[in-house]
Amino acid sequence: MQILIPILIVGGIGLLAGVILAAASVLMAVPKDEKAEALEALLPGANCGACGFSGCSGYARAMAEGKAQPGLCAPGGPKVAQACGELLGTGPVETVSKQATVRCLGSDDNADTRMDYVGIASCAAAQLLGGHTDCRFGCMGLGDCVAACAFEAIRVCNGLAQVDPEKCTGCGRCAEACPRGLIELAPKKRRAVVLCSNCDSARDTLRVCKVGCIGCGKCQRTCPVGAVTVANGLAAIDPAKCVGCGKCAAECPRKVIRLETM
Fold first, then answer.
1. How far apart are CA 161 and CA 127, in angstroms?
2. What share of the chain in percent tops pLDDT 70?
3. Residue 6: beta bridge partners?
4. What pLDDT score does 40 carry?
């Protein structure tokens, strides 16, 4: 009898705890949003944050609550946007696919380094020291953009980051990771791109890079639609105005303008 009493007490406590936990699970349960779950199932699950929300679940919840429109998912593209639009009943969704471009040609063959960097293999860390490349605007090639890309669309080759257009989804994480702001996101279309970010004088640019833009203005003068401007010694092309004629690329004496034909 003395043995049974402790057993009964322990059993009673366990039963009471079970009842309390069961009641708590019912009272404190978070109601499921079936629409949000259905929307999340349509998203690619990359959790890249390009939509401006905390991952795919956050974006799905925002769409379900009417706080966000479909079409913000860069990895999903038009297909996912259309599927989300059909589920929400919003009709056709217009999307603009974008691609990342590294605005630099400062590979090991074209630009030198001013010091041997032996610190943390990070562009952000090297930038704290002013960078180890002669060009203070150029790619440092330590791979912060590579680490940030969830789609293996970027690699560093010969000291220069390069984007694979077939793999790039335009999520923008690489652009956020680059401490020198060298990566540009622009709509996928036939357009010209200036692959340089150097704003130094022509003399200083020539000293540090074999192919850097010297701001000569030939591209600006030859553009028939006014898409090219030169300021602070650097040419810039407005992707919204560019018609992809290629005249600026043909005229550039430094061959730093490339015509994207995607």
1. 16
2. 89
3. none
4. 92
User: Taking the CA of residue 240 as centre, how many other CA atoms within 13 Å lie in the half-sphere pointing to its CB?
Assistant: 0
Q: Find out whether 169 and 175 touch, Cβ atoms under 8 Å.
A: no
Token pair 């220069």 in the structure block, residue? 160
Please list, in sequence order, all residues whose beta carbon lies within 8 angstroms of the beta carbon of residue 245, skipping any fewer than 6 positions away. Answer: 224, 225
**Residue ranges of domains in the chain, CATH in brackets:** 34-88 (1.10.15.40), 98-187 (3.30.70.20), 189-262 (3.30.70.20)
> What's the one-letter identity of residue 100?
A
- CA distances 157 to 160, 164, 193, Å, are 5, 12, 20
- Rounded distance between C-alpha atoms, residue 201 and residue 203, angstroms: 5
The answer, yes or no, to whether residue 121 has pLDDT greater than 90, is: yes
pLDDT tens by residue, 74-108:
888 888 999 999 999 888 887 878 899 999 999 99
The Cα–Cα gap between 36 and 45 comes to 14
- What is the sign, positive or negative, of the torsion defined by CA atoms of 223, 228, 231, 234? negative
User: Is the model more confident about 92 or about 175?
Assistant: 175
Residue 17 has pLDDT above 90, yes or no: no
